[in-house]
Design a protein that fits this description.
The protein is an alpha/beta fold and 621 residues long. It contains 21 helices and 23 strands.
């Protein structure tokens, strides 16, 4: 019995949506059988069985049905147009048979028989389609026993479109609409009740998925909805775009899961075109560290702004190869030059600057991973400090108009060596700003960037994929976060605001507990946090203890008050700095001690320049 049901369902699936030619052939065979039954009903009482007439009748009916689109429609969407189409095809077919009978003089039955034949074929054909539609509905209900029970958040136009799309599948069964509108609450939309968010709290345990069905939803509003559903531990998805809904067929991959950046709730960065143009449009732009996370995004945004040429430099061959190919694919008319080069090699850099008239430098090259720099202090110091020194010198010597350093929040009262090297890089930029009248030097300081190499998000995703555990150093640790495109766009707009020596601070929003971020990522992946309260969860969080030099929280300002700028998300400050000659003398002494592997001398010079850095942990050995 079960085998028969399985084969019957397979046949209905073919009729419903699947292989078009097989579907048309099956439906045509059904209709030929109905034509034969109609013939028996109409002509059997009169013992009429003329083979020529019947052959021509069946041929006309089959040809008309086949070539006038009778089998292109979807069976389950049955309406009056289908009935009119059947009547039209039957009338045409019978008219052609009568015409051919008169022309070729073969026997035709009485005229009233044709009218009865028309009514009978039309009735049986339309009735068969109604029955077929009902069978498909029964099949869908049978197959949807294990379907996801979902609630749609939003009962507007988009929600109604999504409901129709979901009803065309067997994977989802819509149980509720959730909506804030009191006018809609308690009403039915296509048989589905609209309930309030408060009422959903009493019914959410019956639901496997929540689909947010509100179009044009800005990130801050989306975050509010996500936060309001914090008690709901099953996956939450965003509505597909309206173009996909308009197709009327919903695939499982059309539903978009809530992304990590949605948890930030940050609305798109305001863009001031006038701020984007300075130093880029019709200019030669140089980017160090172009293969890194920020460097790549700077490249992507810059090629949209009509630079004269783009010079990209990176020490990593694969990263440079990938961004070079991407840029050339997306900007075929732009002159792009790629340099596989270490930014500490001054002679190599000198050749690049001598052969190219560079207008703007974005210095993004740095070793930024705290544990790696802690374990390789000399390499980290030399790379971060002397790449900055080299590029500042070359910008001055070659009269570059604009110079911008990508810094880090870890440069503020640094507790690790990487942060100390970034602060020292900032001091170098500030000193050159005091000693140069042709180049405008500035720097941008911001926090963690989602999805950048080494950030917690890619790490958490890998740990979730292998079912944990997720490792966090401390339950109270917090960080600032922003997306890579957001950071790059703000950096590009900062350079237009520079007068010289400023540190620009990006509005990072409120700091986020890393523990909360991990918990939300577990939830978004469709899994559950394993804890004392929920010992049968899927993934646990393990706390490993703060790493050497790691802070519980990050800061963005050292000793100055931030000032607003004409951009609402960019602030500036002028912080204390050193005179050029004093700083350069100490940097030269630092280089000498590095080459002599004089650890105590190196660290004492850094502490002398970066007052807030704690040297004690580095001199224990």
């Amino acid at each position: 019995m079960k085998t028969n049901i399985k084969y019957f369902i397979r046949l209905l699936n073919i009729i419903e949506l699947r292989k078009i030619y097989i579907r048309r052939l099956i439906l045509l065979i059904f209709d030929i059988i109905l034509f034969y039954l109609s013939n028996l009903i109409v002509f059997y009482p009169y013992n009429f069985n003329d083979k020529t007439f019947l052959t021509i009748l069946f041929a006309c009916l089959s040809t008309t049905y086949l070539f006038t689109g009778a089998y292109k429609g979807i069976t389950k969407y049955l309406n009056n147009k289908i009935l009119f189409g059947i009547m039209y095809r039957n009338a045409i077919s019978i008219f052609v048979v009568i015409l051919l009978g008169n022309i070729f003089d073969f026997y035709l039955p009485e005229k009233k028989s044709f009218f009865i034949l028309f009514i009978t074929i039309t009735f049986l054909t339309y009735l068969s389609k109604i029955i077929l539609r009902e069978l498909i509905e029964l099949k869908n209900k049978y197959q949807s026993v294990n379907a996801y029970k979902v609630a749609l958040y939003g009962a507007g136009k988009t929600g109604i479109q999504l409901l129709a799309a979901l009803n065309s599948t067997n994977r989802y069964k819509v149980k509720f609409f959730i909506d804030d509108s009191k006018e809609l609450q308690g009403r039915l939309i296509n048989g589905v009740k609209v309930i309030s968010p408060k009422e959903f709290k009493t019914k959410f345990k019956k639901i496997d998925r929540v689909l947010i069905s509100i179009s044009s939803l800005n990130p801050s509003k989306l975050k509010l909805i996500i936060n309001s559903l914090s008690y709901f531990q099953n996956p939450i998805y965003k509505v597909p775009n309206l173009e996909e809904l308009a197709l009327g067929v919903l695939k499982s991959d059309n539903l978009k899961p809530i992304e990590t950046e949605d948890l930030l709730g940050r609305d798109p960065v305001p863009i001031k075109k006038t701020l984007l143009e300075k130093g880029i449009r019709n200019c030669s732009v140089f980017i160090s560290g172009a293969g890194g996370s920020i460097g790549k995004e700077l490249c992507r945004q810059i090629i949209k702004l009509d630079p004269k040429e783009l010079l990209i430099l990176d020490i990593n061959e694969l990263n440079l190869y990938e961004i070079n190919n991407e840029l050339k694919l997306n900007s075929k008319n732009l002159n792009i030059k790629s340099f596989l080069c270490d930014a500490t090699r001054k002679k190599n850099l000198e050749k690049i600057f001598s052969e190219n008239k560079i207008d703007t430098v974005f210095h993004a090259a740095a070793y930024k991973h705290v544990p790696i720099v802690e374990n390789n202090p000399f390499s980290g110091i030399y790379n971060n400090v002397f790449s900055t020194l080299n590029l500042c010198n070359l910008a001055k010597d070659h009269k570059v108009k604009n110079f911008l350093l990508i810094s880090s929040d870890k440069a503020v009262r640094p507790t690790n060596l990487m942060g100390a090297t970034k602060r020292l890089s900032e001091l170098i930029v500030q000193a050159f700003s005091k000693n140069s009248f042709l180049t405008t030097y500035c720097m941008v300081r911001f926090g963690n960037v989602l999805e950048s190499s080494g950030s917690v998000v890619p790490l958490f995703k890998k740990q979730i994929k292998r079912k944990g555990p997720i490792t966090i150093t401390h339950p109270e640790i917090t960080r600032f976060f922003m997306t890579i495109p957001e950071a790059a766009l703000l950096v590009l707009q900062s350079i237009s605001l520079a007068k010289g020596g400023e540190v620009f601070i990006l509005d990072m929003g409120e700091p986020i507990k890393v523990k909360d971020l991990a918990t939300e990522m577990i939830k978004l992946s469709g899994l559950k946090l394993k804890s004392k309260e929920n010992p049968f969860g899927d993934i646990e969080i393990q706390y490993t203890g703060l790493r050497p030099g790691e802070k519980l929280y990050e800061e963005l300002l050292i000793d100055a008050e931030k000032e607003s700028t004409e951009h609402p998300l960019i602030f500036k400050a002028i912080e204390d700095s050193y005179e050029f000659d004093y700083l350069i003398k100490n940097i030269e002494l630092l280089e000498k001690n590095l080459f002599e592997f004089n650890k105590d001398g190196v660290f004492k010079i850094i502490q002398n320049l970066v007052k807030d850095w704690n040297i004690s942990d580095y001199l224990k050995d």
